[in-house]
Every structure is written in C-alpha cells, then in structure tokens.
Automatic annotation (TrEMBL), chains A, B:
Protein name, per record: phosphoenolpyruvate--glycerone phosphotransferase
Catalytic activity of the protein: dihydroxyacetone + phosphoenolpyruvate = dihydroxyacetone phosphate + pyruvate
Lineage: Bacteria, Bacillati, Bacillota, Bacilli, Bacillales
Subunit structure, interactors included: Homodimer. The dihydroxyacetone kinase complex is composed of a homodimer of DhaM, a homodimer of DhaK and the subunit DhaL.
Pathway membership: Polyol metabolism; glycerol degradation
Broad enzyme group: transferase
Transferase keyword on record: yes
Amino acid sequence: MKKLINDPNQVVEDMLAGMVAAHSNRMKRLPNTNVIVRKEAPIQGKVGLVSGGGSGHEPSHAGYVGKGMLDGAVCGEVFTSPTPDQIFEAIQAVDSGNGVLLIIKNYTGDIMNFEMAAEMAEAEGINVAKVVVNDDVAVEDSTYTTGRRGIAGTVFVHKIAGALAEKGATLKEVEAVAKKVVENVRSMGMALTPCTVPAAGKPGFELGENEIEIGMGIHGEPGIEKTQIQPADEIAQILLEKILDDLKLEENDKVAVMINGLGATPLMELYIMNKKVSEVLKDKNIYIHETFVGEFMTSLEMAGCSISLLKLDDQLIELLDEQADTIAFKK
Amino acid sequence: MKKLINDPNQVVEDMLAGMVAAHSNRMKRLPNTNVIVRKEAPIQGKVGLVSGGGSGHEPSHAGYVGKGMLDGAVCGEVFTSPTPDQIFEAIQAVDSGNGVLLIIKNYTGDIMNFEMAAEMAEAEGINVAKVVVNDDVAVEDSTYTTGRRGIAGTVFVHKIAGALAEKGATLKEVEAVAKKVVENVRSMGMALTPCTVPAAGKPGFELGENEIEIGMGIHGEPGIEKTQIQPADEIAQILLEKILDDLKLEENDKVAVMINGLGATPLMELYIMNKKVSEVLKDKNIYIHETFVGEFMTSLEMAGCSISLLKLDDQLIELLDEQADTIAFKK
C-alpha cells in the first residue's frame, strides 16, 4: 500500500487538519469532533443543512460546506458512518432556530446514526427533517444497504436544497425540494480498479488485468457484473441505458448531467465518457441544461466513474443555477 | 492498460469533443484544430492569453480558458507539443489588436513550436510576447528540457496575468506581471506510480511496490532519487525544503500554496500533505494568503503530487484575488 499518509489510523484526523488549514476563511472544525461547519454557522434565519458519511469520498461532503450548499458535514472514519453524537453536534452547531435538514446517503449505518442524532436533537427542541438519497440504479439491496445505494447524485441534493435554504425557505419547503431531487436523480457507476482502505492495507476486492466491474458501489460493494474492459462508448451506453430505463425521460425533457470520477480516473477519460453521454441524450432529444465533469464523490483511489442524470423542472433549474461558493463546487 | 477510452490514437479528439459538449456555453473549438478558445473570443480591447502543451495534464490548459484567465489553449497529442500551425490559429483567434501573450512551459518542443507560431503571427502583424515558466526546482536540465521544467506553478501565471489582462492592461504590462510570477513561483513533485500514455500502452517507467520517486517530471522524466515510501510529513518536508532553499523566503513574507494532485491521488492525501506544509510555513512565520488543493496539472493517472509556492507582493495578491470563471478554477 503506497499512500501519502502518516498513520493509517490517523488519516481522517490529518486530512481534516490539512483541510481546515487550507480553508480557514470558509470553514471551522467543531472542537474535539470530525465535524466541519461554515465559519459563520449558525446563520440566522436560515434552515441548516447537514450531510456526511464515511470519509474517503472527498470532496464529499466537507467540500460542499459553504454558501448555497451545506452548513455542516460530519466526517466518519474511512468508509464508516459517523457516530450519532458527532451528527448531533453538527445539528446543534448549524441550527439557528429554523430547523435542520439531514441529507443522508442510503446506507444502513448512516440511516441508523443520523436517525439517532435526529432524535437527540428533537429532544433538545430542534426541528429536524431527513431526506435519504438512493440514486444508484445498479442494484436493489447491497452489502451495506437495504434498497438502492446513495452515490454522486447526492451532490445535486446538496446544491438544490442548499440554494432554496439560502433564499430563506422553511424547513418543510427545503425538505420538499430535496425529496423532489431524490425522486428525479439516478446514477450508476463502474470500476476499473479497487481501492484500499488505509487501515485495512489491502484492496477491498480484486479485478483482473483486463477486467472491470459494472454497477459497483462507492465502497466496493458488488455490482451487476464483472466483464472485460470495453470501449468507453460502450461502457457509457451500458450505464446510461439502465439510468434511462429507470428515470423514464421523454423527448424534450431537460436534464443535468454529472460525470463523476471515482478518484484515480484522469479528467481526459471523464470527458471521453461525456462525449458518448451527450451524443446519446441528443439522439433522444433530451435537452442537457448543464454538464458537470470532475470528482464529486470518490472512492479513495478507485479508478472508474459514475454517471448521474437529474431530470429538471423550472424550479430545479432555477435553484441549480443559483450561486454556490464552496471549495469543491462554485457557481 | 485499462482506460476509459475508445481508440488510443483518438483520445485527444474524443476528449475535446466531450469537453466542448459539456461546456459549449463557455468555450468553442476552432474548426479542424485542437484549439479551445473562449466562446466570445476575440475580446475587444483585451490582450489575449494563450497557453497549451501536450495533453494528459488536464485540466491544464483548456480548463483555464475563461474570464480572468486564458483566452485560448492549444492541446497537443498526449505528452506531445502542439504544432506551430495550431498555436498560430489560437493566436489569430484571440487577438483583438491588443496583442497576445504566450504562456509556455519550459520544454524544448514547446519552446520551439510556440516560437515558430509567434514568428508566423508577427509576420501577420500581431504583437506577441512570450513568457516561459520554469518553476520545477527538482533538477536542472531534464529529458525534454534545458534548464528547469515548467509544471503546476504555470496555473498561477494563467491566473495573475489573466486578471491583469481582464482589467485592460497593455501587452507589456501583462508580460511583466507574468514574468514576475515566474520569478516568484517554485514547485516540486513526487510520484507513487507511473502513468501510461494510451498510444504507448505501457507505463513510461517502473516503480517498485514500496518505491516512490522524488522530483519526477509531469511526463515521467527522472527526478532526484527513487526511495522507499515515507510518511507524508517527511515527503512534504523534502519537497518544501528544496522549494524554500530556492525561493529564499524570509519571515513575514506572504505566499500562495498549491497542493496539486497528479491524477490518481485522493483529495484526502493532498489535504494530509497540506497539514505538514501549513505547519512548516507557520513555524517559519511565513504567512499563507491562500491555499489551493486539488488537481491543477496532472500526468494522466499518475499517483503523487506537487507542491508550489508563490511569493506574493501587493500587486500579485490583488490579482490573485480577482474573479476568475473557468471550468477548473473559479474565484
């Protein structure tokens, strides 16, 4: 295992120290926690947005803490849910009396811990709403999940719910638009290589020299099939077909596209994937409002990508277009 | 070789098609070229900025085409200088009569081809100035270079010269500030793994299971030494020491820091590197004005990173802080 780390058991600690050192003008770390919040939190008159999950998916989620997106991110150990007490601290730190929305990726541990934290917060008189993101169409039920997994589409939930919260909407309104995004976003990924959790010291699974896996989860959960490497155009079509089957887009529908790198995929290859994605959508007369290409939700140094499509209506377009000013997402 | 590509000889073509499809609201591709320019080029009353070089370093340089940075980027084949005719087309497309600054990384092929293009442009009556970036302190002279190589520090040249050009400065003024950045920026990198040029099909060099290379170039040019993997803190100190030796910073000097991933390095590891970098600079009473962490100049799927320091004065701070709106760099 060759990694730029010090102690495999200290990677989250060291990362957060380096992140806060880099961005102390934007964010702060709550003392004795792995919680990152906006420097000015809590923001008066605004619903607070909190997300989080296991680390190793950077820039998710701390990279999205800032104006127009999240108020707080709770960083668990690598690929491990954050604990309820830390989530509770995040909720308390961002609540200005207008309530807090929790944006949770659908993993059993995350659901359980965020729900416990919500109960703790409610006992303290804080209004809490929850939205569970389950955008990954690859498989129903998975290693750590009942139902579909939550992956890169979560970033659209941060963006759109964050934009509405920034305008001063109520908790109910912010929750409703977050749920609308969840209903309209679908993703699917594939891997060229596995990744190694530092504390484990060896890859979470194996892929042969010319083998890829279609439909992999962001923690290396099994996908649909292992197959020989294929041209990017064919891989793009496989992923897109399953997304389109599920999202049931019609001619003249509008979408946002996200081509997400899993950590070790050159930007060149993500753009090559986008070539086919844009062609297929154009052929189907689906209008692409905006395309995001980059690393949004990664799996350490896994090579591979995911594609996300978000079906847009006028409200979602307006909110997607609003300003955002975070480390990893600026508009 | 497992890559998300179609034909190894078509990767630049496919990438540019996917890039323009994603960002057609911002950029256009000049017909029958690998030249990307701002959608609104040429911009009246403004000095044009053109950079470029071999592809495989994305987001360099097309990712920096936009408001406050470049007007045009010329994309060569992978790790191969763009041809003079294409550079000439870029110059013509961005010149509004106020002249064009070429920002060239110090590689023999790039220098030769950009100089030929400059001569072609001057023969057509276009004023051209050139700045050569040689920020890499690792080695004097290298595989493709006489003198020091140009690497990630180039992005600071794009940013600062671009900001001054946007304000309507003259070609002489923009050239002068670009040269000031070159005089004040130093970088050094290291690699954990090699990368594979698609058309070659195999890695450009070898590293053992626990071996790293200090001072590597962004095309895999040899560095200072191959050594066993060390803790991130020690690697950060090795790179930083050589940079600081050369840059001769004093107490209370101000710097901008860039921690640049080479393609396959998780953001987590870049932040872990930044932890030590920020500590060392703080210990020396050097003030960090801003820290940039991410992928700015990559080497395909090479794992590793580079550190860049830019010594700042009031003018450079003002220009660094100005707005920029490109795919890969927004302020």
